[in-house]
Amino acid sequence: xxxxMTHAMTHDGPDTDHRLxxxxxxxxxxxxxxxxxxxxxxxxxxxxxxxQVAGMVHGALVRATITRGRVTTLxxxxxxxxxxxxxxxxxxxxxxxSGQGATTKPPAGDAAEVVYHxxxxxxVVAETLEQARHAALRLRxxxxxxxxxxxxxxEPAAEVELPEKKQSVTGEPDAALEAAxxxxxxxxxxxxxxxxxxxxxxxxxxxxxxxxxxxSTLQMLASxxxxxxxxxxxxxxxxxxxxxxxxxxxxxxxxxxPETVAAAIAAQRLGRPVSVVCSRPQSMETTSRRSETLQRxxxxxDDEGRLTMIGHEALVSNLPGQKFSEPVQQATPFTYExxxxxxxxxxxxxxxxxxxxxxxxxxxxxxxxxxxAMDELADKLGMCPVALRLRNIPKLEPGTGRPFSSHKLxxxxxxxxxxxxxxxxxxxxxxxxxxxxxxxxxxxxxxRVNTVMEAKARVTLSLEGSALVETDMTDIGTGSxxxxxxxxxxxxxxxxxxxxxxxxDTDLPASSGSGGSFxxxxxxxxxxxxxxxxxxxxxxxxxxxxxxxxxxxxxxIHDNRKVPLATLMGGAAMQAEGxxxxxxxxxxxxxxxxxxxxxEVGVNAVTGEIRVRRMLxxxxxxxxxxxxxxxxxxxxxxxxGIGMALTEELVHDARDGHIVNRDLAEYHVPVNAxxxxxxxxxxxxxxxxxxxxxxxxxELGICGxxxxxVNAVHNACGVRVRSLPMTVDKVLAGxxxxxxxxx
Amino acid sequence: MRAFDYIRAGSCKDALAExxxxxxxxIAGGTNLLDLMxxxxxxxxxxxxxxxxxxxxITLTDAGLRIGAMVSNSDLAADPLVRRHWPLLSRALLAxxxxxxxxxxxxxxxxxxxxxxxxxxxxxxxxNKREPxxxxxxxxxxxxxxxxxxxxxxxxxxHPSDMAVALRALSAEVELLAAGGGRRQxxxxxxxxxxxxxxxxxxxxxxxxxIAAVLLPPAxxxxxxxxxxxxxxxxxxxxxxxxxxxxxxxxxxxxAALAFGGxxxxxxxxxxxxxxxxxxxxxxxxxxxxxxLLLAEAKGQGDNDFKIPLARRTLAAVLxxxxxxxxxxx
Amino acid sequence: xxVTLTINDTKHHLxxxxxxxLLDAIRHHAGLTGTKKGCDHGQCGACTVxxxxxxxxxxxxxxxxxxxxxxxxxxxxGTPEALxxxxxxxxxxxxxxxxxxxxxxxxxxxxxxxxIRAGWPSHVSETLDGPAxxxxxxxxxxxxxxLCRCSAYPNIIAAIRLAAAEREDxx
Lengths: 743, 330, 171
Description:
Helix content of chain C: 25-40%
Order of helices and strands of chain B: EHEHEEEHHHHHHHEEHEEEEEHHH
Largest sheet of chain B: 5 strands, antiparallel
Shape of chain B: globular
Number of helices of chain C: 6
Order of helices and strands of chain C: EEHEEEHHHHH
Structural class of chain C: alpha+beta
Number of helices of chain B: 13
Radius of gyration of chain C: 16 Å
CATH architecture of the largest domain in chain C: Orthogonal Bundle
Strand order of the largest sheet of chain B: 4-5-8-6-7
Number of strands of chain B: 12
Largest interface: A-C, 60 and 64 residues
Oligomer: heterotrimer
Largest sheet of chain C: 5 strands, mixed
Low-confidence stretches of chain B: none
Strand content of chain B: 15-25%
Number of domains of chain C: 2
Distance between the termini of chain C: 45 Å
Shape of chain C: globular
Helix content of chain B: 25-40%
């Protein structure tokens, strides 16, 4: 017998109780190793593509080789005669690209209608992987092609939309700019980018008595379940999605992808389990990408560096009809003070792979470009870049007058500057040389909006003194297993080893899923709330108010009484569900995470090669739930900043929009040798407006870190690159120019 | 991958006999061939596995160093003789690929890597190398990694090997075996072909011929330098690379051999450039002149225009390093 | 075709299509799914295994070419109950996040440390004849054939240095 209870909480305002600080177990916040670590380092953690079930067959997607048009004929007959081939699936329900996150709306079906080069149009299924791959490459497809489709955002043929809600003007920006003592007005560009998780997109579908069991590598299972059901035209309760281990996602697995639906349809058609594992090129060209951006940033300031005008115009792209547009200016309205402001957001409709969320949509590219412009302004004013930022920190959110939930930018800047040794930076350019290398330093602020999502989790306390945490949450490398285990252990007074966390199954309570840095605080809070409920019942049995109950090492303690938990449980396991509901808190206060990044780089004076020599980040993210996994997330974010600044560019052929470098040899994610010694420092804080006083950490690092590198390169060698990544060709052009001037 | 018959050769003779059947390809390390076969860019009907043939020796002879075709890139880079006398070769090998790939890739296979081009690898794109006469999608497409020297209207791809660039500077020769016992020795200079209007023919290797060994002439004294410029600090193909063997005598350049990677369909060498250096005292003006000679015919395609100044500057830096007084090197 | 692979000291007699890569043979035919497929083209290192003691990309090799070879995969290095020193070090330093590249990283590092012991130089070695040492720069260069998109690189280096130091102490 199990006693069941629910504790729901709507997040409407600040929580000053800080209950977690009053707990006795002492595991929360500590650098506890990941509970699933031993499985991962020994190859025992089972990922989607590792699943093998009896009778399983293999599917391979077939790609469109036109940009726009319609499939007229699939020449299936010759392929069906090839050894082992079981079916060519061209079902109208096949989807064209990935779904967006946090929605049950599926991606567009009718894959025969081609809207970008590389779009999947069919699935070939065969007994073996080798047979399926070969047959898929041999399937001949005829098209009725529609010429003239725009593939680049700056092409005249590209229609440009200005979504009404994304434009804003405050005061008189043009007049303010006119009157400013110092003005920056520059165009910055960032490239199309790929999430490129190490685990390619993959699904294994099996129908069991009218119900679909789907192993799929996804970040948000509950919404994906809805997407799959809607795409197939069945009920959500007839779909079960499993993803206990996910080999990285970075946004590309928020929604379902083409192979998910294709596997399900094929499995239904054949009555056999079908596995579809995307090849690396497919994983890069059939899912989603981060939009390239063109950003015009205008800054006006008085001669003491007070910003008077901020202008941020952006041009991004997406397929026609898509609502998502890279929210470049998400943090622009509140990061710095300025009386006069203008935000213009344009979306060009292009026939390229879908744009969707990639790690930190918005600030990753928006804050990066903005922080480059701030550096240019500091330069113009002859001011220290740190001082310029410190001078412009608002007390209340500009425009709305809302309070900040917490605002640690100043502390992040000053702490970072001190720990990095910023005082050793030469204000003048080209001031430090070691052999062929110019050495320089740069910095940037880091900022990322913070949000929570609805989440549920179930916690069961057994008579044996162990706890079971269950939710459909995923761990995409973020540390969900560790932190959810820690929260339950802390709240229930159990050693880590006595808590088991089970994730990644839609049969379990629906969580927030992983994305947008909201996973830990949202689903963590659901676990916290479930534990709070269990504590209430234990306190009742103990005969004391819940806040006075101490739980530690499997015992309840009050006054001078100490009893094993089981004695308070009435002979039955106890179970509670926690339910976090986002409320008015987000409207009442501006929530964000804050930080600063500092970089020292070397620029080769001959070739323009850049080496990051060291980097330091400070991070204010509220309560740190696990010092080690949080640090790893911060490191990852900063290294993504290195990638954005130096190496990553998804190249689209200007003629047809197809992705030219759709593999890991030519799409350059940073390798080990690109990454120097990195330091991470957390600014101790509790954000009362965040549940558990904890905010997100997965994205903050990338939200500006690249700018620290751009600015350091300028400081080192005098070359200001405004188009990322700063590959050698771009730096070299600047060096050649400077050398010519010197002669 | 297209289905194929797999034959493991027990001897060179067997291998060569098997290779007489049309549609046959040799496989050794397989690191490039399987990459291409998976994309069905290459679709051999038969694969003859030569990886176990006894072509693994590295032996010093009066004529120089003989390197068996099946010597792995990592064994070659770590070989004590190579490290001591041909450090350029070790350096070039170590600048290429990754530890895993170097363990698998062989000397012969490395030389026979296909040229690198995004459009060659993508069977949906036009490529004269894959389908002669179909056109070159790289011209007018994205061509940042492509050739600035020796390219044609049919093909602008570049050779990806680092090792071959070093071997070119070291004046290596290739020993080829043919069915029926034929054996010939071809200088690396004559081994590779420029694309012209037959870009699908990359070497002078006849059908059925096999590389048995690479022969290095005795090492000349002097400095050997390999410098590679690439998009990552490691594990990336060269944008530009320079291999230099240079000997100074009484303040003047007595001998110079320079080869370049990333610039052409094959490792590039310029007799004119080298001739201009011999007997001269090093100076920035001389290096500039050398670069002029190297790049006189250079032609960018747009995205790869930067390779012209990059090659110029890298060459000058390598020459400066190679001619610097002992102890004055950076 | 019939192929015998000795994987982690166990003989596997397999009947394979010649197209089956060593990676797919290990994963799908021998059922050892610890070795991962990240790119299938030798561009990421997730599939790294040791063949006769040397690390290779198992995706770029045909299984039929390895008849009779001794292969070590991540499963052969240790178990959750008996971790290898590198496996333990990866946990201690948080040398991974999603864990997908991890088996390849650990197999690669295991063989890489042997390469250093054998005195093999690397691209970043100052001299070609000096002793090879597991410094940060050397490890970073030698491990660059193993991509980690979570970007645990600093922690991976820390793990390898930890394991290397422990071995020195034990020696």
